Amino acid sequence: MAAREEVLALQAEVAQREAELSSLKQRLAAALLADQEPERLVPVPPLPPKAALSRDEILRYSRQLVLPELGVRGQLRLATASVLVVGCGGLGCPLAQYLASAGVGRLGLVDYDVVEMSNLPRQVLHGEALAGQAKVLSAAASLRRLNSAVECVPYAQALTPATALDLVRRYDVVADCSDNVPTRYLVNDACVLAGRPLVSASALRFEGQITVYHYDGGPCYRCVFPQPPPAETVTNCADGGVLGVVTGVLGCLQALEALKIAAGLGPSYSGSLLLFDALRGHFRCIKLRSRRPDCAACGERPTVTDLQDYEAFCGSSATDKCRSLQLLSPEERVSVADYKRLLDSGSPHLLLDVRPQVEVDICRLPHALHIPLKHLQRRDAESLKLLGEAMRKGKQGAQEGAALPIYVICKLGNDSQKAVKILQSLTAARELDSLTVQDVVGGLMAWAAKIDGTFPQY
Ligand SMILES: Nc1ncnc2c1ncn2[C@@H]1O[C@H](COP(=O)(O)OP(=O)(O)OP(=O)(O)O)[C@@H](O)[C@H]1O
């Protein structure tokens, strides 16, 4: 084999094995998750009271000790305070970093996930060398390097209804740095039941928001959001994207609120929501409604007296990062392996890629027709014309009278299902010729993991 060909073959094999390793690591994380039992929570004794700062502590914290609002009294409170960080991702990393460097006595770190390369631009406690390792272990190691006096307690598991109350009760303040709605309700209800303040933030694309729930008679998450949003309207960072510095800003603000609560200064955003628009450089604070007397969690006659099945309540998963939607029946879907067989057979069909242009710029299958889901959603005339033409052209090779099969693909297999629904409704409304349409399960990321190791994962 010529040297060049051998290089290409070896590169393809390395890429294939890396993809296999990455999917193996994800399976390992899922297996670890399934294997855990609530009673395995490490017991932690309460932090002992502290009467004075050591010489080293005075030197280390001198710049914040001279702040009259904090002083020695506040620093001693920090040293005996504990904060539970739910999620060691884009928000949890900067939050934990600043809490540790400010001298908070104990940090509980809970996360079920492992470090991936795509985490590194914003999950600043993790490094390249730790890819594949549990996020809580990587974060704890980083934090110990930063401040060895801070006790870090890693919980390499998901916060679940079985564990949440026990964990939350062990800490003075809770920070929700998770990325999904079921966990938000779970953390809220656990905080209400355990009587703990909750510093909550979220970030997506160039925007973020932060507030403090259930602090000193203020509203809880359920007061503001009594019902979860429809699952299909919620986007995560993997789908919508996020700029690392945006989660950094929000994580730092969360750290600030948690520190003020722990030091006895009180938070700024109880009963109000700070909105951050990074593109315009705007901060805006809006008042939230006050505590609801009829709130299911913190109201006068609460119905949430125990933690529930939050995934059922929200109709979405708390740990499945792809948030796989199930909009279609199995007959309306095709696996990447079956699609590859069809492609290899040369059978006439149309592959429709419905990702946004920005993702198509990253990578694409060359034979796919690209029409973004958004264009289909708004019945864009140009796009429908393009689709109609492609169908007519493709039909020339197909059997007489048979509809040209369309396969719809996206990144993870959620948008493709929405697109199939739209195409079906367009056919029903006779806006498109009759067609048979299926989506490709798992999308291009399944293609990269199972079919073509050289195809980029993003
Ligand atoms: N119920 C839960 N228990 C523990 N950790 C959770 C729970 N829900 C979410 N998390 C964690 O919260 C973190 C959220 O951070 P972030 O969204 O920045 O990371 P990510 O999910 O790794 O990102 P990406 O979406 O890019 O893959 C994740 O590390 C996730 O594992």
Biggest β-sheet description: 8 strands, mixed
* Radius of gyration based on Cα positions: 25 Å
CATH architecture of the largest domain: 3-Layer(aba) Sandwich
- Using the alpha-carbon principal axes, give the shape: elongated
| Domains, number | 2
Notable characteristics:
Rossmann fold, EC 2.7.7.80, single chain, 8-stranded mixed sheet, Oxidized Rhodanese, domain 1, cytoplasm, 18 helices, ATP binding, multifunctional enzyme, alpha/beta, binds adenosine-5'-triphosphate, molybdenum cofactor biosynthesis
Structure, described:
The chain is an alpha/beta fold and 458 residues long. It has two domains: 42-314, NAD(P)-binding Rossmann-like Domain (Rossmann fold); 330-451, Rhodanese-like domain (Oxidized Rhodanese, domain 1, 3-Layer(aba) Sandwich), CATH 3.40.250. Helix content is 40%, strand content 14%. The chain has 18 helices and 13 strands. It has an eight-stranded mixed beta sheet with strand order 3-2-1-4-5-6-7-8, sandwiched between helices. Strands 9-13-12-10-11 form a five-stranded parallel beta sheet. β12, α17 and β13 form a beta-alpha-beta unit. The longest helix is centred in the first third of the chain and has 33 residues, at 3-35. The two termini are 32 Å apart. Residues 86-90, 110-113, 118-119, 135, 158-159, 178-180, 183, 236-238, 318, 321 line the site of adenosine-5'-triphosphate. Keywords: ATP-binding, Cytoplasm, Disulfide bond, Metal-binding, Molybdenum cofactor biosynthesis, Multifunctional enzyme, Nucleotide-binding, Nucleotidyltransferase, Transferase, tRNA processing, Zinc. GO terms for molecular function: ATP binding; metal ion binding; molybdopterin-synthase adenylyltransferase activity; molybdopterin-synthase sulfurtransferase activity; thiosulfate-cyanide sulfurtransferase activity; URM1 activating enzyme activity. The active site is at 237 (glycyl thioester intermediate), 410 (cysteine persulfide intermediate). Interacts with NFS1. ATP binds at residues 90, 111, 135, 179-180.
